[in-house]
Amino acid sequence: MSDPVGAGAAAGDGAAAGGAAFGDGAVADGAAAASGAAVGGDAASRDAQSIAETAAAAMWADDRASQALGMRLDAIGPGRAVLSMTVRDDMTNGHGIGHGGFTFALADSAFAFACNSYDRRTVAARCDIAFLAPIREGDVLVAEAVERHRTGRNGIYDVTVRRGDEVVAEFRGTAREIGGPVAG
């Protein structure tokens, strides 16, 4: 998928390039509301949504790691992102369960898309994760990143990783802007 937020998503039809859900109700309601800002609300919210979509498309084009892991960008909005990934057989460990590093990578990618959604280059300054349940081959994981606080060049983001309705991990990241636009 080279364009995670295709023209259909920008127009608010609920579909992104590559068939990924984009605010169609299959993702968390906050992310769905964020993607709906592209068609409803005031001009400022539409502009903020457009900025988030443009920054996400630019990031996705260069994000070989997320793409190689089979991640999908399901929704994007100012300070929010939803990514999903299916656990493959090569993502399991010696215990026959999903390796925690892949759960972390999914959460970290959702965090990255959320904190870069203002089109300002931003990186992780600190992050941690709590693994709450094991994952298995074939599980579809959905990571929803939500901005909790943002001031100056710093931000705090929480990411919940779910398998269906079950929360399998909670991640918190602290972000720091490093200067320059994402979409260049």
How many domains, in number, for the residues?
1
Structural class: alpha+beta
Number of strands: 6
Order the strands across the largest sheet as they lie in space. Answer: 1-2-4-5-6-3
Fraction of residues in helices?
Answer: 25-40%
CA-to-CA gap between the ends?
20 Å
Q: Give the overall shape, derived from the CA principal axes.
A: globular
Any idea what the CATH superfamily is called?
Hotdog Thioesterase
Individual helix count = 5
Low-confidence blocks of residues: 1-40
Task: Please write the string of helix (H) and strand (E) elements.
Answer: HHHHEEHEEEE
User: What's the mean pLDDT score?
Assistant: 83
The CATH class, by name, is Alpha Beta
Describe the structure.
By secondary structure, this protein is of the alpha+beta class. The chain has a single domain, classed as Hotdog Thioesterase (Thiol Ester Dehydrase, Chain A, Roll). Helix content is 29%, strand content 31%. It is built from five helices and six strands. It is globular. The N terminus is likely disordered.
